[in-house]
């Protein structure tokens, strides 16, 4: 079944969000959180395949047609954004499906607001605490697998470079080089996603996610606040869908995420699939989301 996609605007947590909506209004509700640097469109293949569910896919803070405030890119505000979206959209304990940076928000949301969702699905995102520990200890070469994190801490230069002709090609390569099955990524959709990054301001918000998370780890008060969040275990069922050919986030590290989440994980590996599961393997991803709903 192919679902028609509608578009709406929602005022939540002090800013305006663009939200794409598709599927049966009587079906189970699913809220999807995209990764870096995608936007709502990365969920379009799943939305077209799941007409029996009501799927909500927002552009997160700073992305696309959602507001781009100067602040609020810390994980506390970002998870409050999700809480406010659930309230304003009047969703009754939706399934929360999250990928990449959206997955990091999903993990932390599970620690803070498990009571607002029925289950959490994380697609190729290591628990943030697990990932930071692996990076600091050099586990499985983790620091070298995500080399963009340090350059992203520089002000204005990363977004200025990535919107030049050379930078745009490099940004596209960052997707295609992480393809698990060559020729399977939806390149037309990828180009549509990347076309939204024309000016440095288009990428400032997305890169701020990295800057603010580093700031949270460095500043003692913010780090203590985050550790206090982690102290509350995730109390709803968690399914992890994992493209096993993810070169940036190794499965061996990611499988330790349950210890930091404080819960058991339903691990669902996708052999041969790379990091961008939503763009490369939407059929398999849809199967896993349906399975979680059942």
Give the beta-strand count. Answer: 8
Overall average pLDDT: 97
Please trace the helix and strand order, writing H or E for each element.
Answer: EEEHEHEHEHHHHHHHEHHEHH
Strand content: 15-25%
Helix content: 40-55%
Residue stretches low in confidence (pLDDT < 50, at least 5 long) are none
Task: Report the span from N to C terminus.
Answer: 18 Å
CATH architecture: 3-Layer(aba) Sandwich
Give the overall silhouette: globular
Trace the largest sheet across and list its strands: 1-2-4-3-5-6-7-8
- Count of the domains: 1
CATH homologous superfamily classification: Alpha/Beta hydrolase fold, catalytic domain
Structural class: alpha/beta
Q: Determine the number of helices (DSSP H or I, runs of at least 4 residues).
A: 14
What summary fits the major beta sheet? Answer: 8 strands, mixed
Concise summary:
The chain has helices at residues 44-49, 75-88, 101-113, 128-137, 142-145, 157-162, 165-176, 187-194, 200-218, 220-230, 251-254, 257-261, 277-280, 282-293; strands at 5-12, 15-22, 29-33, 54-58, 95-99, 119-123, 238-243, 265-270. The chain has 294 residues and is α/β, with parallel strands linked by helices.
């Amino acid at each position: 079944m192919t679902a028609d996609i509608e578009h709406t605007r929602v005022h939540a947590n002090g800013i305006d969000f663009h939200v794409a909506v598709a599927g049966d209004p009587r079906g189970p509700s699913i809220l999807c959180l995209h990764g870096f640097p995608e936007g709502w469109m990365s969920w379009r293949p799943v939305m077209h395949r799941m007409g029996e569910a009501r799927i909500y896919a927002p552009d997160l803070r700073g992305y696309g047609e959602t507001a781009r405030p100067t602040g609020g890119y810390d994980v506390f505000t970002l998870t409050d954004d999700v809480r406010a979206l659930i309230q304003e959209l009047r969703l009754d304990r939706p399934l929360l499906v999250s990928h990449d940076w959206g997955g990091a928000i999903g993990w932390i949301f599970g620690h803070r607001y498990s009571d607002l969702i029925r289950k959490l699905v994380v697609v190729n995102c290591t628990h943030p605490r697990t990932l930071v520990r692996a990076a600091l200890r050099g586990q499985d070469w983790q620091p070298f697998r995500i080399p963009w994190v340090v350059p992203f801490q520089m002000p204005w230069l990363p977004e200025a470079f990535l919107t030049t002709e050379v930078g745009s090609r490099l940004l596209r390569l960052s997707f295609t080089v992480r393809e698990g099955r060559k020729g399977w990524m939806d390149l037309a959709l990828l180009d549509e996603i990347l076309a939204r990054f024309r000016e440095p301001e288009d990428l400032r918000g997305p890169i701020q996610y990295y800057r603010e998370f580093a700031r949270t780890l460095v500043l003692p008060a913010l780090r203590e606040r985050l550790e206090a969040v982690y102290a509350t275990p995730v109390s709803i069922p968690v399914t992890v869908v994992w493209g096993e050919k993810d070169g940036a986030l190794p499965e061996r590290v990611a499988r330790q995420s349950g210890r930091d989440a404080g819960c058991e994980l339903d691990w669902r590996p996708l052999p041969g699939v790379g990091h961008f599961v939503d763009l490369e393997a939407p059929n398999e991803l849809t199967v896993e989301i349906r399975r979680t709903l059942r």
